[in-house]
Specification:
The structure holds two protein chains of two kinds. Chain A has a seven-stranded mixed beta sheet with strand order 1-7-6-5-4-2-3, sandwiched between helices. In chain A, helix 3 (91-97) runs antiparallel to helix 10 (340-376), helix 6 packs parallel to helix 7 (180-187) and helix 10 (340-376) crosses helix 12 (443-461). Helices cover 34% and strands 10% of the residues of chain A. In chain A, strand 2 (170-174), helix 7 (180-187) and strand 3 (191-195) form a beta-alpha-beta unit. By secondary structure, chain A is of the alpha/beta class. By secondary structure, chain B is α/β, with parallel strands linked by helices. Chain B folds into two domains: 66-80 and 343-444, Alpha-Beta Complex (Aspartate Aminotransferase, domain 1); 84-337, 3-Layer(aba) Sandwich (Aspartate Aminotransferase, domain 2), CATH 3.40.640.10. Chain B is 36% helix and 13% strand. Chain B contains 13 helices and 13 strands. The chains are: A alpha/beta, B alpha/beta. At the A-B interface, helix 2, helix 3, helix 4, helix 5 and helix 6 of A face helix 1, helix 2, helix 3, helix 4 and helix 5 of B.
């Protein structure tokens, strides 16, 4: 087929970089004229504007709208990335977060002018504590990994307070853990010791007990875990680590599976971060911003970071220094008070669902995952036998004889109109495929998804390798060369060389 | 429940397919006495009830736009074109995940590449990452990066570094046993030169600093380099890039900053946008996501996340940082706003902000008992009052004027800074706002 003259293909429009399209002579924002006052910049003023081009407003709109059309998104279809909880993002939340009383509020305004915002944070704290059964929550962490850091810093502060920082230096982390867990432990100065799993995809409680000792600071266990399974020995683990003088950090990435159904505080957990951008529906935004409030047990609550929002007879206050009751705070994680924009969205979501709706969320999320698990098990191999929680894990055992790999299979899903599942994670299962449908998929959507994957599975088994090797065929780009991108990194646009410069080279 | 598509009929038929009698069979691994706790929380509500309730909370606040407004100290109120908010609410940007599948995420990846280019250009550096949580966490990450590069364990911070930033650095560094020293937080003092020695991994300098002073980084970076240390420049007001010499041109090795004031609202402190730029030679020591250019199998240009062997999902406990996301949507807002401004427009906004600050400073200097302490500033400066600035700010707040950020808020319980008030202005500051501040202050003093 002949190529088009423009390079576009119908609605599939190619987009140059803004540096190739914009103008250096104009601006797309009109400003009143400057008056010309005497500069106070001393000799640090720049003589010229920074060399960056601009669009007029219609050009900008077109550039970014065309770019947007090259993305897949939850608003377009199922986004079944495991442990990512890609659920519907209600637009009421967006509208509420943009109210001027929240969005147009400076973090350091006098607190007499921000009582409604502080009340909102305080109310969200109450919801999070009640839903997790924990006595305290630190609101400032800005993402899940940041919440992990908060929990582990609180654990370290508690260990320092006991004078055990020289001896309690080891943190036990299951092999199936998300990479942020060991990275966080290392960032807190701990060494990481891997915990083996059992044949049924859970932490090996005997191995855990054998590794415990007075040098263990904490265990970091995700529950439900990254295999989509509930750690049924969770209380025994908690008791064992507590008896050994350590703490229990629970990674709350998968809280959506149990929200309203079970409370980490009833299971012996000392600290757990909550991804507001997963369980509580704030948008992922192409990779952030997230929010990771971290709930803390009585043992860790005194070490919570500042700032903290508190209430007394005069109203709401922000504690920003080591004042009474906060003498043992472990420090500060961020400049201001955390992700207010995400707090508004999350509370809007919680109020909408209520206690009854949130329990239904967990039940539907688990039902949807099990439905997908049972339907796909017709052709695919389950990672571990038996029911799952909110996500279904498959291995590549069923693909072994086909010559098609997990990656090829995932890319073929793109051609079918889906975002692929999480691949090659968790590391404990060969060629892992981790599918989390969430509760916001309808049965019809799940059926279309399962029918398509079963069709692909049959095609792979029937030897239709071309379908997979050439996938994706219908995406804005074919497979991209990630190796050369890493070998010779080009991380920014630079102007093309002029003809003279090229001649000189 | 409006967000849940399953009907009771669907649920029953799906339970049948799964082969269980009821939903709680699927929760069989949860200890029975912990299952289905009674929660002391209200049940679900309609959209209009939630709207009404949250609007009520919003209405209890005095928004920045409700009256004369002069607060800064790390968060700034600027105009954001309507186009920006429309674009970031496009479903394809708002409801996408981290671009793990580049073939169907070129929209996100291309704007991240554009963002990285803009940030590198503004800071005068060679490379920038795809953003961090905010300016304060970016600063802490810069200190950790300097530690990896120099293999040294001592951080020197200027007295003019925002105290919250300094606390974040200290919290992160002391955790791993490093030494963190800071010069006294006093306006005008720049006594860090003598603190730099052969054990120093980096010196962290903010300009404009928290009091609004402009700092010449050239001498500091030269001294740092003499001792084998790195110079980390911190910028909390990104609009200042429009009018000031770039940190890169003054010898900075790492430039971090808060990008909120371009494209992003005040949001009561978050979400914000951490900027992080460095020299090409240090790229493999950088934290955070990086987007790179490549080609697809047909030779067409495309973009991917790259150099991920630095990151936690590959390197686990050996990663450069535990960071797993960026501030994607805030970076998009920045990129869209910057693409509308261009270098020319940014210079105009910066000029208007500077002029507004100059006019405010002159008007305040004329008040008896008020001393402007800065000999240089961009859009923010410090005044010394004859009494506790906290009290004055609270008094003015009762008249609907947000007069600035008092020293007592940033350095609680510290006498030397108690009477200081940090005042910021922008292109949105009107002459009538300045007049209201002047008359309010006169009355309060």
């Amino acid at each position: 087929m002949t190529e088009t003259f423009t390079g576009h293909k119908g609605l599939e429009l190619e987009v140059p970089l803004l540096f190739e399209e914009g103008s250096y002579e104009k601006s797309g924002v009109d400003m009143p004229a400057a008056e010309g006052v005497t500069s106070r910049l001393g000799d640090l003023g720049a003589d010229e504007a920074v060399e960056l081009p601009a669009f007029s407003e219609p050009q900008a709109m077109r550039h970014f709208v065309r770019l947007s059309q090259k993305n897949y998104a939850i608003d377009m279809g199922i986004f079944p990335l495991g442990s990512c909880t890609m659920k519907h993002n209600p637009r009421l939340n967006e509208k509420m977060a943009r109210l001027p009383g929240f969005a147009d509020l400076h973090p350091l305004q006098p607190t007499s002018t921000t009582q409604g915002a502080l009340e909102l944070i305080h109310e969200l704290q109450d919801w999070l504590c009640e839903m997790t059964g924990m006595p305290a929550v630190a609101m400032s962490p800005k993402a899940g990994a940041h919440g992990e850091l908060c929990g582990m810093m609180a654990i370290r502060a508690a260990i320092v307070a006991k004078g055990e920082e020289k001896t309690r230096t080891r943190v036990l982390v299951p092999e199936s853990a998300h990479g942020t867990n060991p990275a966080t432990a290392a960032q807190c100065g701990f060494s990481v010791d891997k915990l083996p799993g059992t044949a049924d995809g859970r932490v090996d409680i005997d191995a855990l007990k054998a590794k415990l000792g007075d040098d263990v600071a904490a265990i970091m266990v995700t529950n439900p875990n990254t295999c989509g399974l509930f750690e049924r020995d969770i209380r025994e683990m908690a008791d064992a680590v507590h008896a050994a003088g350590g703490y229990f950090y629970c990674d709350g990435a998968n809280f959506n599976a149990i929200v309203g159904k079970a409370r980490p505080g009833d299971l012996g957990v000392d600290a757990m971060h909550i991804n507001l951008h997963k369980t509580f529906s704030t948008p992922h935004g192409g990779g952030g911003p997230g929010s990771g409030p971290t709930v803390l047990s009585d043992a860790l609550a005194p070490f919570a970071p500042i700032p903290a929002v508190v209430k007394d007879a005069d109203g709401f206050h922000i504690v920003e220094s080591a004042s009474e009751g906060f003498e043992q705070n472990f420090g500060r994680m961020v400049a201001f008070h955390g992700q207010m924009g995400m707090f508004v969205r999350a509370l809007s979501y919680m109020l909408s669902h209520g206690a009854d709706g949130l329990r239904q969320v967990a039940e539907d999320a688990v039902l949807n995952a099990n439905y997908v698990r049972v339907r796909l098990a017709e052709e695919m191999t389950q990672g571990y036998a038996g029911p799952c929680m909110h996500e279904a894990l498959f291995s590549d055992v069923w693909l072994k004889e086909t010559g098609v790999g997990t990656l090829d299979f995932a890319k073929a899903m793109i051609d079918e109109g889906f975002h692929p599942m999480t691949m090659y994670f968790p590391l404990v299962v060969s060629g892992a495929m981790l599918i989390e449908p969430t509760e916001t998929e309808s049965k019809a959507s799940l059926d279309e998804f399962c029918d398509s994957l079963l069709g692909l599975a049959k095609a792979a088994k029937a030897g239709d390798k071309e379908r997979f090797e050439q996938a994706p065929r219908f995406a804005p780009r074919k497979r991209l060369d990630e190796t050369s991108a890493a070998r010779k990194p080009v991380l920014r646009w630079t102007p093309p060389l002029s003809t003279e410069a090229m001649a000189a080279e | 429940m409006r967000y849940l598509p399953l009907t009771d009929g669907d649920r029953q038929s799906m339970l049948n397919t799964v082969g269980v009698q009821n939903i709680d069979e699927l929760f069989g691994d949860v200890p029975a006495d912990a299952l289905n706790p009674t929660l002391d929380l209200p049940n679900h509500q309609s959209e209009f009830e939630v709207d009404r309730y949250l609007r009520g909370l919003s209405d209890k606040n005095h928004a920045a736009g409700d009256g004369p407004f002069f607060a800064g100290a790390g968060a700034y109120r600027h105009h954001v074109p309507a186009t920006v908010d429309h674009i970031i609410q496009r479903s394809e940007f708002l409801t996408a995940y981290t671009p793990y599948q580049p073939e169907i995420a070129q929209g996100t990846l291309q704007y991240l590449f554009e963002f990285q280019t803009q940030v590198a250009q503004l800071t005068g550096m060679e490379v920038a990452n795809a953003s961090m949580y905010d300016g304060s966490t970016a600063t802490a990450e810069a200190a950790l990066m300097a530690r990896r590069i120099t293999k040294r364990n001592k951080v020197i911070m200027a007295g003019g570094l925002h105290p919250h930033y300094a606390e974040v650095v200290r919290t992160n560094e002391e955790l791993i046993g490093d030494t963190v020293l800071q010069a006294p937080a006093t306006p005008g003092a720049g006594a860090i030169m003598d603190m730099i020695d052969d054990e120093t991994s980096c010196v962290i300098v903010q300009s404009p600093d928290v009091f609004g002073f402009l700092r010449d980084l050239s001498a500091i970076s030269a001294k740092a380099h003499e001792h084998g240390a790195l110079c980390v420049a911190v910028v909390t007001e990104a609009v200042s890039f429009g009018l000031l010499k770039s940190p890169g041109s003054q010898g900075a090795d790492i430039v971090v900053g808060e990008g909120q004031s371009i494209g992003n609202a005040l949001n009561f402190g978050g979400p914000y946008l951490g900027l992080f730029a460095a020299r090409q030679k240090h790229v493999r020591f950088m934290p955070g996501r990086l987007c790179g250019e490549t080609t697809d199998t047909e030779g067409r240009r495309g973009f991917v996340l790259t150099l991920s062997t630095r990151e936690q999902h590959i390197r686990r406990d050996k990663a450069t940082s535990n960071i797993c996301t960026n501030s994607g949507l805030c970076a998009l807002a920045f990129t869209v706003h910057m693409s509308l401004l261009g270098g020319k427009g940014l210079r105009e906004v910066a000029t208007l902000s500077h002029e507004a600050a100059c006019k405010t400073a002159d008007a305040l200097a004329a008040i008896d008992g008020v001393e402007v302490v800065n000999d240089s500033f961009f859009n923010e400066f410090t005044i010394r009052l004859p009494k506790d600035a906290n009290v004055v700010v609270d008094q003015l707040a009762e008249q609907g004027i947000v007069a600035g950020v008092p020293g007592g808020r940033l350095w609680p319980g510290r006498d030397e800074t108690e009477n200081l008030l940090i005042v910021a202005a922008s292109e949105l500051t009107r002459d009538s706002d300045i007049a209201a501040l002047v008359s309010g202050l006169k009355e309060a003093l």
